[in-house]
Amino acid sequence: NDLDGAKIAVQKISELPNPLAADVATYLRAQIFQAEGDCNQAIDLYRVLLAKFPGNKDTLDSMAGCFDKLNKRSDMIAVLHDLHAKAPDNPSISLLLADLLLREKKMTEGVGVLTELIKNNAKVPQAYSALAKFKTAQNDKNAALAALQEGLKQNPDAIRLSLSLADFYQAQGEHDLAISVYEGLLANHPNLDGVINSLAVLLTDHYSSRAEMLSKAVQLTERFKDSDQAYYRDTYAWALIKQGRVNEGVTVLQDVIT
User: Fold this and answer.
1) Model pLDDT, residue 1
2) Under 8 Å between Cβ of 138 and 130
């Protein structure tokens, strides 16, 4: 049994002289309880850890998972409110609290948490993405866009924040602006396969009547011809097909399927 082996390993870790060994062992025991479906025992151990390390993301996320499984999300929100009152500038606490408040549709409260976090620390890119989600859910698209743009002003190298902006533009049908975001990312980070793939999909899906756009999609995705990622090879195949190179594209697709 894998869990039995894990319990033996945890016991050995707990006996190590390292000052953090006991805490690591406590976390791993909680993970084992959670894997066994005993979330109440796991939560008790997570509480012990949070008393010592209140902003530990792994502990917070795992504890939230347990409360969700028990259909007690409100209890996790209460825990986070207590932690947030003591450390309002801790990103892990604030971001998780905001995420749970969004799921519970507590919009004003969630926006307040994120606004406070940004005020205390403007260098947390995830806070702006999260704030944009709230504003989008409130159907305030201008405020959502403003949040993303301000986030990038404060964190110009935040790749995920740029991707959030590209996603926002695509959701609004502003495909030219999304392309600009992707191209800006690739100018600074030319080997981001995920960005290359997203840009190529956008070009083939929405600009298939423009030969130069299809040529660009094929050029971008040629690097995926022998990729281990079937999804990327699929993008290359469809770029070829839409360009009119049907036989080549079908050959790539057959390789993907087999």
Assistant:
1) 60
2) no
Retrieve residue 3's tokens: 């869990």
Nearest CA-CA partner of 201 in 169, 230, 228, 231: 231
pTM of the predicted structure, to 2 decimals: 0.87
Amino acid at position 239, single letter: A
Helix H segments across the chain? 2-14, 21-35, 39-52, 57-69, 73-86, 91-103, 107-120, 125-137, 141-154, 159-171, 175-188, 193-206, 211-221, 230-243, 246-257
CA distance 224 to 237: 9
For the chain, which ranges sit under pLDDT 50? none
pLDDT at res. 114: 97
CB 63 within 8 A of CB 75: no
Q: CB-based contacts of 120: which residues, under 8 Å, 6+ apart?
A: 88, 89
